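Thread: quick sanity check before group meeting

JM: Hey all, I'm pulling together slides for Thursday and realized we never actually wrote out the predicted structure for the chain we discussed last week. Dropping the sequence here so it's in one place. If anyone has concerns about the input, flag it before I start.
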Amino acid sequence: MLDAALETKVKTIWIARDLGYRGGRRTGVPLTDEVHLESAAALMGGIELARATEGPVMAERTAAVTWRVLSRIGQPVMLWNVFPFHPHELDSPMSNRCHTRAERVATWPLLEALIDMLGPRQIIAIGRDAQMALTEFGLPTEGVRHPSYGGQREFIDSMFGLYGVSGEDEPKLPFEDAYTATACSAFA
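JM (edit): ok, ran it. Output follows.
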């Protein structure tokens, strides 16, 4: 994926907090579930991406909203996370927890290297936790609401605004504003 980002001269990085068990943990691609893995491959110039899991394909709401926006934008974007792994509860790999400050600091050189390699013109922080982490490390970003916790419409509208995409014909999501989850902060 990194080679494809370099070849397609990606100039935007979308950075969220960390991988979730229904999405990036199963695909290795941030903000991407198994349902949208082929879309990720196509957006990056037709690279080959394969499922890392067996069994039924699993969907994730954040990925559904993210890929809905990406399909309308039609530009290659590098997807990443402040903490680029899946933090989970001890002995419960199919759970989510916030990464710790120490975990974030330990993996920060990976994000710095990615930014150095890609030289993006724009970094978009997805969610308050990502925005705070990127600000803490001195990265200039534009922040948008995370699509979970009832923020689907605000995320879509903000992204369309940043990319100059009209959202007038955008239908309401079937689960829009109906999903709530427990927010956490990796800044304690």
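AS: nice. DSSP finds seven helices and four strands in the chain. The longest helix spans residues 101-118.
JM: adding both to the slides.
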